[in-house]
């Protein structure tokens, strides 16, 4: 016997913040164009690395927006959850792009060691400062939304990395202007490449957790079991499964053994309402499915888990 208190497959966590992502995408693309031109004029690898990183960010935001649109497509008999997992796949692509960009930048930086070309620091500095300002604006736009969606969080982390990258370029430009140490540009590009990897790894790890249907972060199965057992008439609970379809959509299912007398006297609806209310209020899990089993039937449940 299943009971579901919420089968809503509407707008996703990323979809709710579409306008924020569009604004960040527009800002990022504008700065990428300026930095690419600046890198071509100045000869700065660090500035080109920052532009490449920002371009990957723009691609990630575009993928997130595309995935958010795809995720709104209705469910079907072949895809009963619709396309909402597309957002997670977009985050996966984003993480992989970040890793590739960082490796390419690092290889080019190594190639330049010992033969760093002369850099026009004035163009380099102006473009880096402009990039830092744009990144600060983008961070403010995404700050309140990044906790709700993997894709928005990915965009937020990328912009944060871009900001640090812009600071690295600014520092390199100042060093070259003051000391004439041209290798500062190459060092700054390597720093940017190294900064990208940890963020990409964390995003990739979160995506893998969702794809492997791991228990959502912050959810303790034992506490949920105790809450279910506290409902009047519940004897035991087994086959507990908690996973995430996409950002902001945890799903729960369980087999709940109930006293025969309780089912006879109160009916299944009252028990199910209490169980659903318990999980919805304590664990922010609205999409719950319970299979109620009379205590007298428990001997037939030979394959029990969790």
In short:
With 306 residues, the protein is mainly α. Helices cover 64% and strands 9% of the residues. The chain has two domains: 13-211, Alpha-lytic protease prodomain-like, CATH 1.20.1510.10; 221-300, GMP Synthetase, Chain A, domain 3, CATH 3.30.300.
What does this structure look like?
This protein is mainly α and 306 residues long. It has 2 domains: 13-211, Alpha-lytic protease prodomain-like (Up-down Bundle); 221-300, ANL, C-terminal domain (GMP Synthetase, Chain A, domain 3, 2-Layer Sandwich). Helix content is 64%, strand content 9%. The protein contains 10 helices and 3 strands; from the N terminus they run H-H-H-H-H-H-H-H-E-E-H-H-E. The protein has helices at 13-16, 18-42, 45-71, 86-112, 121-142, 150-179, 183-211, 221-229, 260-266, 268-283, and strands at 234-244, 250-258, 287-294. It has a 3-stranded mixed beta sheet. A hairpin with a 5-residue loop joins strand 1 (234-244) and strand 2. It starts with 12 loop residues before the first helix and ends in a 12-residue tail after the last strand.
